[in-house]
Design brief:
Layout (H helix, E strand, L loop, with lengths): L4 E9 L2 E8 L8 E9 L7 H5 L10 E8 L11 E4 L9 H4 L7 H5 L10 E4 L1 H6 L1 E3 L6 H4 L2 H14 L6 E5 L3 H12 L4 E6 L2 H10 L3 E4 L5 H7 L6 E6 L4 H10 E9 L13 H7 L2 E4 L5 H12 L8 E5 L4 H10 L5 E4 L2
Parallel strand pairs: 8-9, 8-11, 9-10, 11-12, 12-13, 14-15
Antiparallel strand pairs: 1-2, 3-4, 3-6, 3-15, 4-5, 5-7
Helix pairs in contact: 6-7, 6-12, 9-10
Length: 344
């Protein structure tokens, strides 16, 4: 008998996350019912301004599911299959999709996992089943598979920024997403990877994962440190993790002439960066934001994970649903925690 309700974490405010019983609608044609085996906590879900405009909601969009039910007409999936489920999926036929801009597709913006990844059971909409569900290979653990979605976002950002062989890369902000940038940039052939942060444990961890140089921005000038190890030029690509004007400007000051500033996190809607047009023009700086990811990036991410990208080293905390609120507190604190995984 199919589940009609599920226990789930409901986000009301950043200080009010409740474990509630949530109704599950009847399974429709083309849909999947999954049991959530594990779900990562995204740093974006610790951005209070971003979550407040969606609340109340069931968060969690980095899930690994196990198929327990299939709707009419579903082919290719059976009970017991372990799958990655993207929380959004595009239509694949609109103009945005034909251009590869999947995140701007109206279907992408509308679709979501029901009720969300931080639940015991969830329904995968038919649009998502068609466009962005991936079977997880037997050798890949549930914890590693929770990185498909976040790594896909990094894959897309790296592609948009043009990271490739011989590049000198600076990553500002060494939370889990910054660490994934370090891991991927090394495998894409970067010549030099510099990591910058305020937390000493994160600096040490990034050096272990492949950063050639780490800079504590509370102790030294980041632009000076970057120029000192790049023959005075600066970094070819600067990835800015924190969504603050301070971090964006700091990144801009570190970009080499002809280089790229990659904006990985948004600022709140009322915050404005006074764009330095004069300097950007004469230094020919390219500013490239990167939001979310589409089916090509999730497939690439799964391939990187299956090939052994060492992401499990980034998992620092594990909780049941009952501990999800504490997990988000640690993510928001942004000190000791990197990746927090919840196992419903």
């Amino acid at each position: 008998m199919a589940a009609t309700t599920t226990r789930a974490i409901v986000y009301h405010t950043s200080d009010d996350l409740r474990l509630e019983e949530v109704r599950l609608p009847a399974l429709k044609p083309g849909e999947l019912l999954v049991r959530i085996r594990a779900c990562g906590l995204c740093p974006g879900e610790a951005m209070d301004w971003y979550m407040a405009r969606k609340a109340p909601l069931v968060p969690g969009h980095e899930p690994v599911g196990e198929v327990v039910g299939t709707g009419e007409g579903v082919a290719g999936y059976a009970s017991g299959d372990r799958i990655f489920v993207h929380h959004h999926a595009p239509c694949l036929v609109c103009r945005h999709c034909r251009r590869g801009d999947y995140v701007h597709c109206e279907t992408f913006r509308r679709t979501k996992l029901i009720p969300g990844g931080l639940s015991e059971f969830a329904i995968v909409p038919a649009e998502v089943v068609r466009a962005d569900v991936l079977r997880i290979p037997p050798g890949l653990s549930d914890e590693a598979a929770t990185f498909v979605e976040p790594l896909a976002c990094v894959v897309k950002a790296a592609h948009r920024a043009g990271i490739g062989p011989g590049d000198r890369i600076l990553v500002i902000g060494l939370g889990v997403m910054g660490m994934l940038h370090v891991l991927l940039a090394r495998r894409l052939g970067a010549e030099l990877i510099i990591g910058a942060d305020r937390v000493s444990s994160r600096l040490s961890r990034s050096a272990q994962l492949g950063a050639d140089l780490v800079v504590d921005v509370t102790r030294e000038s980041l632009p000076d440190a970057v120029r000192a190890c790049t023959d005075g030029a600066g970094a070819d690509v600067v990835v800015v993790g924190p969504g603050t004007v301070e971090a964006i400007q700091l990144g801009f000051d570190c970009v080499a002439p002809g280089g790229t500033l990659s904006l990985f996190t948004p600022t709140p809607p009322d915050v404005v960066w006074p764009f330095p047009v004069h300097d950007a023009y004469f230094r020919e700086i390219t500013v490239v934001p990167s939001y979310s990811a589409g089916p090509p990036e999730t497939k690439d991410a799964l391939q990187w994970l299956a090939a052994g990208l060492p992401v499990e080293a980034l998992v620092t905390h594990r909780y049941s649903l009952d501990g999800a609120a504490e997990g988000y507190r640690l993510v928001r604190e942004a000190t000791e925690a990197l990746k927090v995984v919840v196992r419903p």
